Amino acid sequence: MAHEKNISKAVIKRLPRYYRFLGELLNQGVTRISSRLLSEKMGITASQIRQDLNCFGGFGQQGYGYNVNVLYEEIASILGLDRQVDAILIGAGNLGRAVANHMEFEQRGFRLIGIFDENPALIGQTIKGVLVRSTDKIEPFCRVYHPTAAILCIPKTVTKEISDRLIDAGVKGFWNFSHYDLALNQKERGIVVENVHMSDSLMTLSYELKTLLSEEN
Ligand code: NAI
């Protein structure tokens, strides 16, 4: 796509929401939608939507609106959801199990091919059909299966050591839930990182509530 390289990070961050929303419209049998209606339903201004979608060629037509399916497929392609990247998950504790069980990886461009933990009680179990292996087996596994991404659900004290091992084993992308902030600007090393902190979202809610309640008083 000619315009794709210039899409800003801010727009990329909004694309999953458009994608989710357009998917719901498709499920309801909606085939086209105006930017005004899309704006009302998503709570984003129509001009913001036009600006966002123009970044990769628009697809809106005057008087017609957006073809929901075309836009859905285009966003999927920009996000890379039309191919699958192999991923492994490290840390099969409470969070790791929840992520493995509930995240629909295949629909989001990933395939979970291995899970690793150091706890002997977990090794040998399967989660969502994927075997939990010993952490010692990370390197031999990577030599055979070449996973590109890793999901980290381990304590922060071990994140640096494990991520260094994974980088040496060829992993390029980290979805990092541990509260150790893997440096974000790793692109020059050929590494990309998404640090996830649910607590950040909770603190944002705290701020919003504080503001709301002080306005009411
Ligand atoms: P947990 O204790 O239930 O699970 C951690 C798992 O990591 C255990 O199974 C343990 O055996 C394994 N582990 C420890 N060292 C390891 C190593 N060197 N190699 C492989 N596996 C290893 O903890 P939980 O609740 O699942 O949380 C996991 C991490 O996620 C913690 O660091 C926690 O603070 C963080 N967390 C982050 C959230 C977020 O929003 N980012 C939300 C909740 C938890």
UniProtKB/TrEMBL annotation:
SMART domains: CoA_binding. GO terms for cellular component: cytoplasm. Residues 17-56 bind DNA. Keywords: Cytoplasm, DNA-binding, NAD, Repressor, Transcription, Transcription regulation. Pfam families: CoA_binding, Put_DNA-bind_N. Residues 80-181 form the CoA-binding domain. GO terms for molecular function: DNA binding; DNA-binding transcription factor activity. Belongs to the transcriptional regulatory Rex family. Homodimer. HAMAP family: Rex. This is Redox-sensing transcriptional repressor Rex. It comes from Merdimmobilis hominis.
